[in-house]
Write a structure and sequence with these properties.
Pathway: Amino-acid biosynthesis; L-tryptophan biosynthesis; L-tryptophan from chorismate: step 1/5
CATH superfamily: Anthranilate synthase
Protein name: Anthranilate synthase component 1
Subunit structure: Heterotetramer consisting of two non-identical subunits: a beta subunit (TrpG) and a large alpha subunit (TrpE).
Number of domains: 1
CATH topology: Anthranilate synthase
CATH architecture: 4-Layer Sandwich
Largest sheet: 12 strands, antiparallel
Pfam families: Anth_synt_I_N, Chorismate_bind
Number of helices: 11
Strand content: 25-35%
Helix content: 25-40%
CATH class: Alpha Beta
Shape: globular
Distance between the termini: 21 Å
InterPro entries: ADC_synthase, Anth_synth_I-like, Anth_synth_I_N, Anth_synth_I_PabB, Chorismate_C
Number of strands: 28
């Protein structure tokens, strides 16, 4: 079982390699606060020992969570200016072991075009330079231990990296239009985190204790006590997360998620003929020998009535995936359910998981097996997958020890709620002179959303696509104070900005691609996200008691007339997810 954001820990792993034993009793410390006993771990003695080597030590308080859910608890955080929720579902069938929640970062790093803001709680600094060097200099200030009783993320940076980040390091052209004006990166540095452990039904409230040069034993004891008190306040801030009026919408069954073809008013940034012209032009580049493959995308826009958090709730029910995320930022919110890892670094091992080749799930086990055989025997799908595995091996080879890069599994089928994919696992041992962020840059953007060779494919994308991609085809994830990093490819994602919801989807173009089919593929890939928007509108807004939309649950949205800038889509029924 694979639990993406939990770094491989799955709730089904009770006794295998994924089981993490708990040895808390001897390490529990009691700190007095207002007459109440707050139990924290590790103990003060253990924290002092760790402080001799590290300058950040996570202090944890836990409580039972068998009556709580991440959604219920996170609603206490979702209205704050900055907040995040990371979840995982293994193959769309089981929820991952951990969910990570947080808000109110002590530092936000954002910017574009070489100008970055460092937004602290009490001040803002502006710096110029390149993003990875900036992030590396910031993360070098925080060194935390890997503790066996804690999840892989207990504090660090969470956020997104845009597709165009590689332009800081390679001579690549820019897109002609940047109408969304999104940052090149947006990271929230959090030293307080709430973690759901779904296996042990417990909530972990984590506050990272800071150690400064020259701290005495008394200083460390005071920092430890303050960290324990912070865990107490963190627990109190989400305690009694009662149901909020109207948040659950009306009672509903599985019919609420049935695919009736209604996705509301949707418009694209290009018409069909322009997309098909891009495909024809890309095929000319392929026949000329410039590239083997290129991924061309279009962006869809709709105007939701539901809130981004309500839409996330619909999406996680409609399309559970290994990487699910809700990122609330200053001006934008991003929600998504990506199936595909970009890169993960843990314990000195770098991993990537190319996914290429898709079929819908069958209606019966026999049909499912027949579709699997069809997928694995499709020469075009196999050739594309082999090419992307080779690209992943090359990406890791730039940062891993010579001879350590290998395929741990090759061309196996992985099933999700709506589709099945061909998946391979590639890993290598990180070189001593390289960091997790070096491994990240070596893989960004993924070949599955750019093409091969990667740099030439990106040049062609910039030429043929009109608007900048922004977060689409970039990465979302975390970089922990321990040095661990876990990121996914930003696909199956909705960006909310200025009252609009944007969904972008692409298709891999090869020498024999049929323009009409590739256009249809991009529409079908976007459909799950757009359905989630429409479902949330229906459940949480149109059918809410007293709403002027009440009673419209079964009424398809009226299609508006096209204008000169966009056309409104009639979504097809065929096809699957990205």
């Amino acid at each position: 079982m694979y639990d993406a954001f939990a770094g491989g820990h799955s709730i089904s792993a009770v006794g295998g390699d994924f089981f993490v034993s708990v040895r808390f009793r001897s390490g529990v410390s009691a700190a007095r606060q207002g007459g109440n006993t707050v139990k924290c771990y590790p103990s003060l003695q253990e924290a002092a020992r760790l402080a001799a080597t590290y300058n950040v030590v996570p202090i944890v308080r836990e409580r039972m969570a068998d009556t709580e859910t991440p959604i219920r608890v996170f609603r206490r955080m979702a209205e704050r200016r900055h907040a995040f929720l990371l979840e995982s579902a293994d193959g769309g069938a089981r929820w991952g072991r951990y969910s990570f929640l947080g808000a109110d970062p002590f530092l936000v790093v954002r910017g574009k075009a070489g100008r970055f803001e460092l937004i602290y709680r009490d001040r803002t600094e502006t710096v110029r330079g390149r993003p990875i060097e900036l992030l590396s200099s910031l993360m070098e200030k925080y060194r935390a231990p890997v503790l066996p009783d804690l999840p892989p993320f207990a504090g660090g940076a969470i956020g997104y990296f845009a597709y165009d980040l590689l332009r800081y390091y390679e001579r690549l052209p820019a897109h002609r239009v940047d109408d969304l004006d999104m940052d090149d990166l947006y990271l929230m540095f959090c030293d307080e985190v709430v973690v759901f452990d779904h296996l042990r039904h417990r909530l972990l409230f984590i506050a990272n204790m800071r150690i400064r040069p020259g701290d005495t034993e008394a200083d460390i004891a005071r920092s430890y006590r303050e960290a324990c008190e912070r865990t107490e306040r963190l627990a109190a801030s989400v305690a009694g997360a009662a149901e909020l009026s109207g948040e659950n919408g009306p009672p509903f069954g599985s019919e609420a998620f049935a695919d009736d073809g209604d996705i509301g008013d949707v418009r694209s940034n290009m018409d069909r003929s322009r997309y098909e012209e891009m495909v024809i032009r890309a095929r000319e580049y392929i026949r000329a020998g410039d590239i083997f493959q290129v991924v061309l995308s279009q962006r869809f826009e709709t105007r939701p009535k539901a809130s981004p958090f309500q839409i996330y709730r619909a999406l996680r029910a409609l399309n559970p995936s290994p990487y699910m995320y809700y990122l609330k930022m200053d001006r934008e919110t991003i929600v998504g359910s990506s199936p595909e890892m970009l890169v993960r670094v843990e314990d000195g091992i770098v991993r990537t998981r190319p996914i290429a080749g898709t079929r819908p799930r069958g209606r019966t086990p026999e049909e499912d097996e027949a579709l699997e055989r069809d997928l694995l025997s499709d020469e075009k799908e196999r050739a594309e997958h082999v090419m992307l595995v080779d690209l992943g091996r090359n990406d890791l080879g730039r940062v891993c020890e010579f001879g350590s890069v290998k395929c741990d599994s090759y061309m196996r089928i992985e099933r999700y709620s709506h589709v099945m994919h061909i998946v391979s696992d590639v890993s290598g041992r990180l070189r001593k002179d390289k960091s997790a962020i070096d491994a990240f840059v070596s893989c960004l953007p993924a070949g599955t959303v750019s093409g091969a060779p990667k740099l030439r494919a990106m040049e062609i994308i910039a030429e043929l696509e009109r608007e900048a991609r922004g977060p689409y085809a970039g990465a979302i994830g975390y970089w922990a104070f321990t040095g661990a990093l876990n990121t996914c490819i930003t696909i199956r994602t909705i960006v909310f900005k200025g009252g609009a919801a944007y969904v972008q989807a692409g298709a891999g173009i090869v020498w024999d691609s049929v323009p009409e089919n590739e256009y249809r593929e991009t529409v079908n890939k976007a459909k799950a996200m757009l359905r989630a928007v429409r479902i949330a509108d229906r459940l949480f807004v149109e059918s809410a008691p007293g709403s002027r939309f009440s009673g419209l649950m079964e009424t398809p949205a009226r299609k508006s007339a096209p204008n000169e800038d966009y056309f409104f889509l009639e979504m097809t029924q065929a096809g699957g997810d990205e």
